[in-house]
Amino acid sequence: MTIRTRLKAAAHRLFGSSPEAPAPVAPPAIEPATEARPAAPEIDIYAENARWMALAAERRFDEAIDLCRATIASPDTSFMASLFLGYAAAQTGRPADARPHLRTARKLNPGDYYANLLLANVESALGNRHEAIVYYMHCCGLPVDSVVEPFEAAMTLAKAQVDSADGNALSALFDELSARDRLPELLTLKFLFYWRRDADLARRLAHAADGKGETKPSFRRIRSVAAWTREEGQPYVRLGEPASIRLVAPTEDYAGDPQEKHVLASEPYIAEVRDATIVGNSSLVYLGDHDIVSDVLAHPQYGIQVSLDYDKTVLAQRSDALLLAPLPAPAHLVEGIMLSGLASNAYGHWFAEFLPKLRHFEKHPRFEELPIVVDADMPASHFDFLATLVRNPVHRLERGAALKVGCLHLAPTTTFFPVELFKDHTVPPEDQASWTAEAMRYIKEGVARSHALAPERTRRLFLSRKNSAWRILRNEGEIIEGLRDLGFETIFLEEYDFARQVRTFGEAEFIVAPNGSALNSLIFAATDVKTLILGQQNSFNWGGWLGPMLDLGFEPQFMEGEATESTSFKHSDYVVPADRVRAKVLAMLGS
Length: 591
Prior knowledge:
- The protein has 20 helices and 20 strands.
- With 591 residues, the protein is of the alpha/beta class.
- Strands 1, 2, 5, 6, 7, 8, 9, 10, 11, 12 and 13 form an eleven-stranded mixed β-sheet that branches. It has a five-stranded parallel β-sheet with strand order 15-14-16-17-18.
- The chain is globular and about 90 Å long.
- The N and C termini lie far apart (65 Å).
């Protein structure tokens, strides 16, 4: 039920009006001043509310608010007017303005579900967690068909502090609602999980499976590959010491004033785990009945700051465990290398997170005969890229499908490499995924074996991000126009197959590009290629890309623009002045 429908229902309950608005009535004729005026008719509040809501439905909120105020002389004496004004202010992103109206509405009608719910939403938007939880909990005690929405909202707010007074109160309410069978099974499981009532959760999961012969959600602890193999006595072979990664902050003047530091890469290894289950487009490895293996989640410093919101197998997440969706019946594979996982269909992750693992797997004595498990829905160019580097058989795993592997081979990412971090994370930029010169060289040399550099490198390229969903260079068209007479052509790499991508970079004399994963392909160009990278003020983890690129002999230059959103937002759109770009390009050309 939409808020608009709820407001109509609230008016109907309060005033007993017909659920249908009356037909519009023509305004009365203006009578001579000398004639006596009839008494003003009583306002039909439901009909008036229908007019406000009609405007709101067209997103004409300011007109609706003006009409409401013009119709109701004292909105703070009218439940329906107060409720509507609070709703309209909230819908237009003004929770502070909505709050007094909704408080008035609740005071006039304390038992109205929607007044309490809207007020709870507004308190939550204002950061008043305790007040929001109180109002959400009050909603759960009102005679409504479902309490799922307010209870889940309260749970979301309270789960960070389950031992607080609010957390304890919500736990008591949970027991009451659960006893009355007012909460659906999945919400019940999530609550037990977040409140760490693990014994209750285990019993509930066991009971759900009794006699049904069907798969069920699972509660699993998070383990690292090293910890699991050590405790289970399974093969784990260290491949030397972690590499030192050179980080160079990509400022406009980094060549003259380099800001450098070094960080350590992950410990290189190859490991084997027995009877493992994996799922298409998830990086989790299911082992036994109670464990999940994930180096990124088990990272001793930053694992608790990794978000799995994009992983559809995860129902709920906490620092030590996961609540996971039921697994489908698995297919079976005797042995295989895991190169599947979350975000494998994104070029930046495929290039930097997945393919570098191959240099570790190649240390296995039977590497060439082992099938490589990959996600089936990757772009075709990803499969071409893989086939360029290795000749192994490939097993394609469909999205969401389960695969049980008798012996699954694992290797680490180059560094701590999360797909997503929680919004309030504290992971420093240098630890948010970096590359190594070794990993880049492995890919560069592997591709060069079958794709030689062009003998003539004369093309001037602008790599467009116009088709991207985030981190857009807002004035890209203006920059393109300013470079046109200098011989720059605009290309869209996502439209090219892999061989054409490699060939295009190999033919380049000069590349101008907004920052993005396509720049990983710079390694397919000659090291003397002129490169100008455009971005916003903050470089985030690009220092871990620039350092290894310098080690390989490339010397890209950078130009900073202005973010159109928060400068702390990695994927903010931005603007770089076109005249500055043109002047820089001319200087790099020696003109």
